[in-house]
Design a protein that fits this description.
binds zinc ion, four-stranded parallel beta sheet, alpha/beta
Length: 465
């Protein structure tokens, strides 16, 4: 497998720190609002990476943190007149629900900032002891960027220009120095620590959690792979790298992976998406798998221009997969090592080359449809085909639904119950050889936009679009 390392700016062969194991850490959400398409894209990219590594046989420890204390959460809590805990719980639940809807698997570890204060305090103490941090008169503690000779090596910056947006604190020794701990002297949200009441700096969270929960402590690196959105490279990841390097004497990650930005296609988003970029709104109009298929369809390093035309084209592409799956309905999956699986993993093992992977799936569907037209009853072929589709489901995370239910997306439970009732009545009429009634019901269903298929294992239906 090869991975593009955003620090060395080149593709490198993946060599794990420990044989057969991978430690992967991805910066998670700050839970003060619903997840938008950018969150979805990042979560999907690293979910795919994890699935590919697992399919390659690695035992993957996948950690993604939850930033559940932050100024944004405090502001939102003030705005709504509820506690920060309530805000964090509400949006953590929303994030979990939305990610599940697009097939993102739960991380192995999901540490919360508020439950890791002691790990952060311990790292601050080490940085203070080693003179990489200093305390100013109001009790805030800062990281001394000039004390780290490798500072800026991660993002390859030559100077500290463009960091003027960082808040100006007159007692800071250097402009780039960042807060490890912010002292709280009033009634505001704060945690007890050896440095008094206060709140940890955001950058510190990931370094401390990686050290405490994820790092296998072998070799020169804390973990194998650190991932996140491209916007995190500087200053967030630069600062994480500096903290870890200075506190632990090893580098944070052997490979750094960053996914591109998501842009929304102009202002002309269709009404069905309501001009919203929240994932939960997109999920009202589209099956989670369609969104997954679409958001993963371009290479993770490039920027992703979200527009509904491409989304609909993606849906049509996924529809083809489900139509093929219908042709195999009733067959139970057996694991067969297919040539397809080998090719798919080879494509994705090349720094997640999804274009090649998707092309392989398109080819598989086309050749399968031809083969099934010619010889519909070849059981060995059908088994191998189903096995290939199961590989797609495991590695790429789509195609796993009942194909008939997939085509029923968007109908509410009442509508489905009504249709199922009609189908049952029709079956009874057919059994009683009352063909006038069964034909009339078929027409009624057709008028509702429903196509029915009678198969040896029962009658199935789908809504036409
Ligand atoms: Zn982070």
């Amino acid at each position: 497998m090869t991975i593009y390392d955003s620090v060395q700016k080149t593709k490198l062969p993946f060599i794990p720190l420990q044989e057969g194991k991978v430690s992967l850490y991805v910066c998670g959400p700050t839970v003060y609002d619903d997840a938008h398409l950018g969150h979805a894209k990042s979560a999907l990219v690293f979910d795919l990476l994890r699935r590919v590594l697992e399919a390659e046989g690695y035992d993957v420890l996948f950690a993604r943190n939850i930033t559940d204390i932050d100024d944004k959460i405090i502001n939102k809590a003030r705005e709504l007149g509820i506690s920060t805990t309530e805000i964090a719980q509400r949006y953590t639940a929303a994030y979990t629900r939305d990610m599940e809807a697009i097939g993102v698997q739960k991380p192995t570890l999901e540490p919360k900032a508020t439950e890791s204060i002691d790990a952060m305090a311990e790292m601050i103490q080490r940085l203070l002891d080693k003179k990489h941090a200093y305390t100013i008169s109001n009790g805030d503690i800062y990281f001394d960027t000039q004390s780290d000779t490798n500072y800026l090596s991660l993002s390859n910056r030559q100077s500290m220009e463009n960091v003027s947006r960082v808040e100006r604190v007159s007692e800071k020794r250097h402009e780039a120095d960042f807060a490890l701990w912010k002292a709280v002297h009033d009634e505001g949200v704060a945690f007890d620590s050896p440095f008094g009441r206060g709140r940890p700096g955001w950058h510190l969270e990931c370094s401390a959690m990686i050290e405490r929960y994820v790092s296998p402590h072998v070799g020169d690196y804390a973990i194998d792979i650190h991932g996140g959105g491209a916007d995190l490279l500087f200053p967030h990841h630069e600062n994480e790298a500096a903290q870890t390097r200075c506190a632990t004497n090893h580098e944070l990650a052997r490979y750094w992976m960053h996914n591109g930005f998501v842009t929304i296609g102009g202002e002309k988003m269709s009404k069905s998406l309501g001009n919203s970029f929240f994932l939960k709104d997109a999920l009202k109009s589209y099956d989670g798998e369609v969104l997954r298929f679409y958001l993963l369809s371009t290479h993770y390093r490039g920027d992703f221009n979200f527009n509904e035309e491409d989304l609909i084209a993606s849906k049509r592409r996924l529809d083809r997969l489900y139509r093929l799956k219908k042709r195999l309905f009733g067959l139970s999956a057996e694991t067969i090592d297919t040539e397809f699986k080998k090719n798919l993993l080879e494509a994705l093992g090349d720094d997640l080359n999804v274009s090649r992977a998707y092309a392989l799936i398109d080819e598989l569907i086309s050749s399968a449809n031809d083969a099934l037209d010619t010889n519909p009853k070849d059981k060995t072929y059908r088994q191998a085909l189903l096995s290939a589709l199961t590989t797609v489901e495991t590695v790429l995370g789509f195609g796993g639904q009942n194909p008939y239910e997939y085509f029923q997306f968007g109908l509410d439970e009442a509508a489905k119950a009504h249709i199922n009732g009609l189908i049952e009545k029709r079956s009874e009429a057919k059994k009683a050889k009352d063909f006038a009634t069964s034909d009339a019901i078929r027409d009624e269903l057709s008028a509702l936009g429903v196509s029915i298929m009678d198969t040896p294992v029962g009658t199935f239906w789908e809504s036409r679009d």
